[in-house]
């Protein structure tokens, strides 16, 4: 959405926003400087306004158009690219940014992510997914501490894995104290823990353990002397789930809005500007101490994002799929969803998707098959994540069966992850108009150099089926697409071992997948994923040249300037 400000039609409230934005623009040289770095006050994005033309010149701008054209300038107006490689316009309302030869890419697009879960994280979530040692972790937590008011929790939940740290373990209580002595700290790994805390955190959890239970089903947290908290089960609760419950019940709606702003800011700082959210294990309210990090109320989890959208403060495009996880043969929730929800309804900044990452559990037999049929009957897009070749075979046969009753060939049904494939199954999917999304996150848990982690990127891309790539952040894997691009182009895991031999992509291919190709999976290939006149103006100016840096430096790539919908939503002040 690019809101057109019409002063005549503005309400008094709108006028306040309008004039404060204009003052904001007038008083800051880098319009969105306040949006970057450690600042966490929830400032709105800085629109350039209808009367401002922005020209980026002197760059290496990879348009990702059909011919892979690289140009040195683009012009943006009213939220869209209006000219590519044209002479820079001039005039009082033209703002020009000299890129000094920097590399520019279209805003990256993620077709399988759980960013709405990240937006709901309790505490002051700290990004640890890019750290590689205990020292890095300590520095990231200490840096976060500067933004965190007294008494508030510094947290980091999901996205990281001990494999990525040189020490291959969690930080100890003493190490966390060293980094942050004066705020409670709580780190929680993936879906179910384990977790780690510092002295102040342990003091709080110990006091809860010693007091009358705050909920009849809460379990003891039993923090060890070293600050460790044992994992919980997927169901039934346990120490980590209880600790998570305690933090979630402290969260206010304003806290959630802050976490949502933080999630969006981090996303644009790594150049990720569009996300297809694949929900999580839906768990209608109220909060309960058996819920794990990937359990949220599927009816309420969008509230903070929706509120920010109403305030025109969203800076990442979000498409929301709906995941149904019921074994009930009646499929009550899926029936109601298909009856009462519109697919692809909303605007360019926030809209509904369809069904994903599954309509019913893949292992629910006839129930799963009935669910596929219902989605086909409704004419909705449908997605399934598979874990092996048997899963892929099941999905292909299921899609073919549905297609005999209802034509799905125009609905863009999708299979995710695809760790193993064969050319017969890919060809049958292609014949159905389906696409596959290759999961590039398997390096995260890879620790045995003898085990091929997959997926077979090379085989799938060479097949010619519609293909995309995804990271599946932010529980089991990082959100940062550059970490996944590193893996897709090198096959190297966190231990430095080659775990995907002969299946690498070129850098050009990996970038194309993460931009132009992925936009197909959001049904937005006409508007995002490449840079061209008439397209929505999303791009990232990179801090180093993706095409010439060393392999190791791909992981370090960040954006120095990100534009979404023609607005500067992130800048480090470098250009
Ligand atoms: Zn997922």
CATH topology of the largest domain, by name, is: TIM Barrel
The number of E-state strands comes to: 25
Distance between the termini: 26 Å
Q: Quickly give the structural class.
A: alpha/beta
How many separate helices?
16
- Estimated share of beta-strand residues: 15-25%
What is the helix fraction of residues, given as a range? 25-40%
Overall mean confidence score, pLDDT: 92
- Known CATH architecture of the largest domain: Alpha-Beta Barrel
General shape: globular
CATH class annotation of the largest domain: Alpha Beta
Offer a concise description of the structure.
With 575 residues, the chain is an alpha/beta fold. Helix content is 30%, strand content 18%. It contains 16 helices and 25 strands.
């Amino acid at each position: 959405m690019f809101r057109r400000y019409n002063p005549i039609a503005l309400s008094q409230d709108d006028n306040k926003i309008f004039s404060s934005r204009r003052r904001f623009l007038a008083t800051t040289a880098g319009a969105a400087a306040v949006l970057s770095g450690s600042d966490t006050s929830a400032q709105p994005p800085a629109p350039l306004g209808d009367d401002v033309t922005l020209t980026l010149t002197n760059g290496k701008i990879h348009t990702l158009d059909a011919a892979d054209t690289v140009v040195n300038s683009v012009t943006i107006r009213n939220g869209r690219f209006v000219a590519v490689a044209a002479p820079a316009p001039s005039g009082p309302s033209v703002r020009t940014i000299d890129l000094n030869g920097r590399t520019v890419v279209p805003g990256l697009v993620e077709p399988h992510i759980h960013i709405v879960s990240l937006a709901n994280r309790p505490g002051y979530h700290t990004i640890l997914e890019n750290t590689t040692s205990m020292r890095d972790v300590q520095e990231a937590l200490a840096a976060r501490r500067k933004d965190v008011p007294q008494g508030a929790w510094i947290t980091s939940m999901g996205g990281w894995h001990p494999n990525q740290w040189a020490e291959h373990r969690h930080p100890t209580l003493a190490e966390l104290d060293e980094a942050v002595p004066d705020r409670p700290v709580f780190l929680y790994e993936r879906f179910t823990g384990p977790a780690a805390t510092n002295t102040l955190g342990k003091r709080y959890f110990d006091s809860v353990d010693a007091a009358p239970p705050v909920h009849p089903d809460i379990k003891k947290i039993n923090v060890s002397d070293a600050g460790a908290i044992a994992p919980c089960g997927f169901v039934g609760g346990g120490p980590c789930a209880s600790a998570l419950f305690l933090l979630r019940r402290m969260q206010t709606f304003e806290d959630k809005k802050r976490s949502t702003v933080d999630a969006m800011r981090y996303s644009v700082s790594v150049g990720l500007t569009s996300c297809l959210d694949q929900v999580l294990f839906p768990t209608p309210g109220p909060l309960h101490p058996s819920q794990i990090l990937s359990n949220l109320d599927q009816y309420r989890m969008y509230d903070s994002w929706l509120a920010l959208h109403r305030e025109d403060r969203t800076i990442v495009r979000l498409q929301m799929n709906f995941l149904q996880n019921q074994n009930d043969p009646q499929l009550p929730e899926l029936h109601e969803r298909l009856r009462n929800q519109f697919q692809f309804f909303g605007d360019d900044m926030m809209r509904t998707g369809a069904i994903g990452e599954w309509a019913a559990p893949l292992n629910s037999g006839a129930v799963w098959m009935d669910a596929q049929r219902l989605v086909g009957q409704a004419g909705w897009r449908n997605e399934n994540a598979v874990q092996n070749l048997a899963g892929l075979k099941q999905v292909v046969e299921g899609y073919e069966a549905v297609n005999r009753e209802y034509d799905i060939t125009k609905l863009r049904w999708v299979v995710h992850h695809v760790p193993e494939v064969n050319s017969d199954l890919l060809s049958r999917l292609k014949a159905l108009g389906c696409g596959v999304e290759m999961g590039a996150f398997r390096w995260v848990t890879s620790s045995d150099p003898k085990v091929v982690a997959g997926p077979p990127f090379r085989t799938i891309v060479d097949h010619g089926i519609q293909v995309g790539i995804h990271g599946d952040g932010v529980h089991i894997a990082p959100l940062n697409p550059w970490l996944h691009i590193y893996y897709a182009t090198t096959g190297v895991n966190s231990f430095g071992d080659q775990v995907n031999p002969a299946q690498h992509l070129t850098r050009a291919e990996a970038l194309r997948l993460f931009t132009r190709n992925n936009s197909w999976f959001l049904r937005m290939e006409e508007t995002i994923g490449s840079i061209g006149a008439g397209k929505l103006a999303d791009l990232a100016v990179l801090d180093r040249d993706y095409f010439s840096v060393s392999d190791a430096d791909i992981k370090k790539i960040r954006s120095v300037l990100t534009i979404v919908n023609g607005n500067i939503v992130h800048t480090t002040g470098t250009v």
